[in-house]
From TrEMBL:
Transmembrane regions listed in the UniProt entry: none
Gene from which the chain derives: metE
Catalytic-site annotation from UniProt: H714
Pathway: Amino-acid biosynthesis; L-methionine biosynthesis via de novo pathway; L-methionine from L-homocysteine (MetE route): step 1/1
Native source species: Candidatus Tokpelaia hoelldobleri
Catalytic activity: 5-methyltetrahydropteroyltri-L-glutamate + L-homocysteine = tetrahydropteroyltri-L-glutamate + L-methionine
Name of this chain's protein: 5-methyltetrahydropteroyltriglutamate--homocysteine methyltransferase
UniProt xrefs under PANTHER family: 5-METHYLTETRAHYDROPTEROYLTRIGLUTAMATE--HOMOCYSTEINE METHYLTRANSFERASE
Record-annotated Cobalamin-independent methionine synthase MetE N-terminal domain positions: 7-325
Record flagged with keyword Glycosyltransferase: no
Binding site for L-homocysteine: I451, G452, S453, E504, D619
Length: 776
């Protein structure tokens, strides 16, 4: 009998198929349920996840992949990087835990959460987990600090699963990745200098795991797929010599994912660990060299099922591809796994009752991916005949996908082929355009504007939800939105803004709104994916060629413009942002998909211009997010991303002013690309850094107009007039007065009118003051 190849999962979504975790967290935060109830829900979710995986037939099931909020925060607590008064009761622990995650108001003198009394606790900074849309909390370390095993969460969860009869493989964020993801409070010290103090904590943890009968752990070191310098590679040698060689500790499966090992391959292969996991969805190129270099005592975990996307795997093809690898290594030395944790995909396709059967036959969510793994393992373990029908089934569905008229739209392909190689430049350079725009627009110095959305008040959300449920007619809904738009225009005129917006009251989300109006996009009912903590998103699925059946925003723009003689900006989401916030088809390059979206947005730009819009904003909030992890891949991405943006604006008249907006200002590394986009005006986020982020503009001459955000919309605080004038005088040190716009950091949809109204009034007042000063 042939050995059955083992299947393994590296991590399962934590949120619950019905978002149970969110519900419990929010109930707990608002004081509706006690700590025990929250912890019970968490335990029930872990149990459910383990049992789901077991029922599917997965051989190696992970534990400690669960988190109440974030696994990096959990790791920081585990190693004592932040103190939590572990011995305290649940309620005090949770208070401190969520204070770190979400911040909290200043406390009175009875406070026990560990904050400095009277000053509150600031939430840890949040940033993207590699190139995913998951955000982790950045641990703040101190130079020279020590660590200790404060909370052995992996041990507790291992025991919890064992009590249910399931022996798991705990997942632990590795020490090198942990330190590289953290930051030092002084902003200078290299966090890796703390490694010698951190590794003993991992040794202690592994010892405790071994003592309770755990033989294998999965240690995640995703930084292995990023560019590492010699010192960082050396840190791996150091840490794993201490963790991997000690036979009294559990064996280590070292997991790399989100790309190939690249220049770190030799480092990874030389480590004394018992197994290695590689991502073969993103890094198929590394297969042969890794297989050849693997030591005879090591096993290889093949990450073959895409943990980052929702497409059904071509299992028959995987059988062919991996049979030789198994023949070479022997079935004992191989495990089959998803490319990474399944955290990044929705849980269960079976919950989707509104997606049609054909589309569903092309998709796989977490549960279906487990089925694929098991099927693949059986086919590769000599049971091919027994599973042939299932394999054929997949082949048929995928053949249909390849040839379906829903996927291939000759018209858009033809149009893009014709555009290939053609310039995407505006007709004239900025200097000429700007003269024509100034003539037409007649704006004052330091024009004031906002980024697009106004508060999505409870009232707006209530009406939208009633409309979506069919409880409110389209006519009534439209009347309601028209009223809100009219009010918003009236208020903007009154407060004295120069360039108005319609307010985006009709939009549920800046990507979803467009996705729902474009062909080639599908939306799920339950396809939630964790973005951070209790915030989940339901990314659209781009399955086919993208086309625009009809104008998407023109009517609302017209309505808004009809209420005022001041210019109202047309407001669009850019192609790169739509792409980066969606599940993207895997049967053509991201670049090609993006060009199709760009074509649709270009047509919308044309229609807005035709309808009379003088200013059109194309938001690229997520352009930076799409940057690849390795430096060598960045230039190519930026090239096509910029080209896609430019395609959108390529047909407009010189006199039409194109704006773009980006919700960040870490521009230093991509400033040349931002400039190459050649938008007439760009608005960016700068207020939180007190305009320090504008320092780049001392060295780099940004040729076009720019609006550095002066009002931090992430905070309920209303900036005072002199605060804004002060911020802008900093900006004036770096940018030319005649190129400067005044605007908030980002859209105002999450704020309340009571905050927005005075804040914008202050901004307008500040602009007036500075205008006077500058003229004098
Ligand atoms: N126009 C959008 C808004 O104001 C931009 C949002 C964003 O950049 N995230 O809401
Ligand atoms: Zn923004």
């Amino acid at each position: 009998m042939t050995t059955t190849i083992r299947t393994a999962a590296l991590g399962f979504p934590r949120i619950g198929a019905r978002r149970e975790l969110k519900t419990a967290l929010e109930a707990f935060w608002s004081g509706k349920i006690p700590p025990q109830d929250l912890l019970q829900t968490a335990a029930a979710l872990r149990k459910d996840n383990w049992q789901r995986q077991k029922a599917k037939g997965i051989a190696i099931i992970p534990s400690n992949d669960f988190s109440l909020y974030d696994h990096v925060l959990d790791t920081a607590i585990m190693v004592g990087a932040v103190q939590t008064d572990q011995g305290a009761d649940d309620s005090r622990f949770l208070e401190r835990y969520f204070a770190l995650a979400r911040g909290r108001e200043a406390h009175d003198s009875n406070c026990s959460c560990g904050c400095v009394r009277g000053s509150g606790t600031k939430a840890l900074e949040m940033t993207k987990w590699f190139d995913t849309n998951y955000h982790y909390l950045v641990p703040e370390l101190q130079a020279g600090q020590s660590f200790f095993l404060q909370a052995a969460k992996p041990v507790a969860e291992f025991l919890e699963a064992r009590a249910l009869g399931i022996i798991t493989r705990p997942v632990i964020l590795g020490p090198v990745s942990f330190l590289l993801l953290a930051k030092c409070r002084d902003g200078e010290t290299d966090t890796l200098t703390l490694l010698p103090k951190l590794v003993p904590v991992y040794q202690e943890l592994l010892k405790q795991l071994k003592n309770v009968g755990c033989d294998w752990v999965q240690i995640d070191e995703p930084v292995l797929v990023t560019d590492l310098n010699k010192n960082q590679q050396g840190a791996f040698d150091y840490a794993y010599r201490l963790l991997g060689k000690d036979t009294s500790l559990p064996k280590i499966l070292l997991a790399s994912y989100f790309g190939d090992l690249g220049d770190n391959q030799t480092t990874a292969l030389n480590l004394p660990v018992a197994g290695l996991h590689i991502d073969l969805v993103r890094g198929m190129n590394q297969l042969d060299s890794v297989v050849n270099a693997l030591r005879p005592d090591q096993l290889l975990s093949l990450g073959v099922i895409d943990g980052r996307n929702v497409w059904r795997a071509d299992v028959p093809k995987l059988v062919e591809t991996f049979a030789p690898v198994i023949a070479t290594l022997g079935a004992d030395r191989v495990q089959l796994a998803p490319s990474c944790s399944l955290l990044h995909v929705p849980i269960d396709l079976q919950q989707e009752s509104k997606l049609d059967d054909e589309l569903k036959s092309w998709l796989a969510f977490a549960m279906q991916k487990l089925d694929e793994l098991v099927l693949l393992a059986r086919a590769l373990s000599g049971e091919k005949a027994a599973v042939q029908t299932q394999l054929d089934h997949i082949s048929t569905a995928l053949a249909q996908r390849r040839s379906s008229p829903r996927i291939i739209k000759p018209q858009v392909r033809h149009e893009l082929a014709q555009l290939k190689g053609k310039p995407v430049e505006r007709r004239s350079p900025y200097a000429e355009r700007s003269k024509k725009q100034k003539d037409i627009l007649q704006l004052p110095l330091f024009p004031t504007t906002t980024i697009g959305s106004f508060p999505q008040s409870a009232d707006v959300r209530k009406h939208r939800s009633a409309f979506t449920k069919g409880e409110l007619s389209a006519a009534d809904y439209n009347t309601f939105i028209t009223e809100r738009t009219k009010e918003a225009i009236g208020w903007q005129e009154e407060v004295g803004l120069d360039v108005l917006v319609h307010g985006e009251f009709e939009r549920n989300d800046m990507v979803q709104y467009f996705g729902e109006k474009l062909d080639g996009f599908a939306f799920t009912q339950h396809g939630w994916v964790q973005s951070y903590g209790s915030r989940y998103v339901r990314p659209p699925i781009i399955y086919g060629d993208v086309t625009r059946p009809a104008p998407m925003t023109v009517a609302w723009w017209q309505t808004a413009q009809s209420f005022t003689s001041k210019p109202v900006k047309g407001m669009l989401t850019g192609p790169v942002t739509i792409l980066n916030w969606s599940f993207v088809r895997d049967d053509q390059s991201r670049e090609d998909t993006c060009r199709q979206i760009a074509l649709a947005i270009r047509d919308e730009v044309k229609d807005l211009e035709k309808a009379g819009a003088k200013i059109i904003q194309i938001d690229e909030a997520a352009l930076r997010e799409g940057l690849p992890l390795k430096a060598k891949d960045k230039a190519h991405y930026l090239d096509w991303a910029v080209a896609c943006f430019k395609l959108c604006q390529s047909t407009v008249e010189d006199s039409t002013q194109i704006h773009t907006h980006m919700c960040y200002s870490e521009f230093n590394d991509i400033i040349a690309s931002i400039a190459a986009m050649d938008a007439d005006v760009i608005s960016i986020e700068t207020s939180r850094s007190k305009m320090e982020l504008l320092d780049i503009f001392k060295q780099f001459h940004y040729p076009n107009e720019i609006g550095p955000g002066v009002y931090d919309i992430h905070s309920p605080r209303i900036p005072a007039v002199d605060e804004i004038t002060e911020l802008l005088s900093h900006a004036l040190n770096r940018l030319n007065a005649d190129k400067l716009w005044f605007n908030p950091d980002c859209g105002l949809k999450t704020r309340h009118w009571e905050e927005v109204k005075p804040a914008i009034a202050h901004m307008v007042a500040a602009a007036r003051i500075l205008r006077q000063k500058t003229v004098q």
